[in-house]
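chain below, 78 aa
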Amino acid sequence: MPVSHHPLIDEFSEYKDTIHQLKINNAHFRRLAHEYEGVDKSIFRAEQGIEIVNDDYLESIKKERLHLKDEIYDMLRA
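prediction:
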């Protein structure tokens, strides 16, 4: 199964312009997006075998990514 990143722009393609505007104008959103991107990269690296992590850690960062994604989605809909 191919492993891929989950960039916000792909996850929420219908909010592309909103994401751009919020990254420019909202420091909290910008921080969340930056944090999401970092966690997503960590998951990708772990799933590719670039970084070795245990299953519990991988599960916890996947949950963190999901939590960030939910918070970002709430901001996009507001």
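The mean pLDDT is 94. Residues 37 and 50 are 17 Å apart (CA to CA).
thats it, cya
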